[in-house]
Design goal:
alpha/beta, six-stranded mixed sheet, 10 helices, binds adenosine-5'-triphosphate
């Protein structure tokens, strides 16, 4: 995908009318001679759930970390909420960071802190709030992600895998972000827990207007909650669009992934409920 790529207009209007909250252009990341990402372009639109997929080791985590500035990149521009991270002053950078939430794979909660304290970590880092207000906010976040109220004073070791994911999501939402990055949020969950987590993500998008960038291998998530899917291959985004676009895209990996045995086991791959205002439009790039 690039700015010159023709886009398919959706039923809700031309694709380019949507607000781009994350824009990645011509990104190049290498570790020594190992080039992981090259000439990579990607847009994420406000209010959508973008599913980001690709084979193992293709660079999904590397891209997420490069976007979050946890890894250096050799080339390329990354604009978040309209601002070029590399060109803004430190105060603006902090403001931008506050508008992002991240759920790392496996939750990555601080094991020595309770759920309440974990949720309050970003509040302590960025805000100067009285304890009573931070407690109220933490309680609100716990409720928002569907955890029982008594989970708030538990330590991560006392929680199930699904509860850890929810607690980590509550922490990612601590500062009411515009955009959340989720790294394989349903991995390790049983199918029911994973489906409930997907529903939670969709509900938060609908109620908070959240934009979601979700790295996932979970075909159920891709088919049920993602408005758009981007596929990483050959070091860049091979194609992005709806499930329907994936099914018709002529690439061996994309075909085997979306039409393979596991995909065929999902009974209703294109439920009508997938059509949302955020789903308007899709774009394709040329496979190389
Ligand atoms: N810090 C690092 N130093 C050197 N090489 C790295 C580093 N991080 C990632 N890589 C390399 O970058 C490539 C892409 O890794 P990455 O973890 O992004 O893959 P992925 O698409 O997320 O894979 P998976 O789906 O298996 O999690 C791999 O070859 C990996 O070895």
């Amino acid at each position: 995908m690039n700015q010159q790529t023709p886009s398919i207009d959706g039923e809700h209007g031309p694709a380019d009318e949507r607000e781009v909250v994350l824009s990645v252009r011509d990104v190049h990341v290498a570790f020594g001679s190992n080039v992981v990402l090259d000439k990579l372009d990607l847009d994420v639109y406000r209010g959508e759930i973008l599913g980001f997929v690709g084979g193992s080791g293709t660079g999904k985590s590397v891209l997420m970390r490069a976007i979050l500035r946890l890894l250096p990149r050799q080339k390329g521009e990354i604009r978040l909420l309209g601002a070029d991270y590399d060109k803004v002053d430190e105060a603006t950078r902090v403001e931008l960071d506050m508008r992002l939430g991240v759920l790392f794979q496996h939750g990555a909660l601080f094991s020595a802190l309770t759920v309440r304290e974990n949720i309050q970590v970003p509040m302590r880092e960025y805000l100067d709030l009285p304890k009573v207000l931070m407690d109220e906010l933490a309680e609100l976040k716990v409720e928002m992600v569907g955890l029982a109220p008594d989970a708030i004073d538990k330590y991560p070791s006392e929680l199930s895998g699904g509860m850890i994911k929810r607690a980590a999501l509550a922490r990612a939402l601590a500062l009411d972000p515009d955009l959340v990055f989720l790294d394989e949020p349903t991995s390790g969950l049983d199918p029911i827990g994973a489906a409930e987590f997907d529903e939670l993500i969709a509900r938060l998008r609908d109620t908070m207007g959240l934009t979601v960038y979700m790295v996932t291998h979970d075909l159920d998530s891709l088919f049920s909650v993602c408005d758009r899917i981007a596929v990483l291959g050959n070091k860049h985004v091979l194609v992005n669009g709806t499930v329907e676009d994936m099914l018709s895209f002529d690439d061996p990996w994309v075909q085997s992934y979306f039409r393979g045995k596991r995909a065929r086991m999902i009974p209703d791959r294109l439920p009508a409920s997938r059509t949302t205002p955020q789903q308007a439009g899709s774009q394709k790039s040329e496979a190389t």
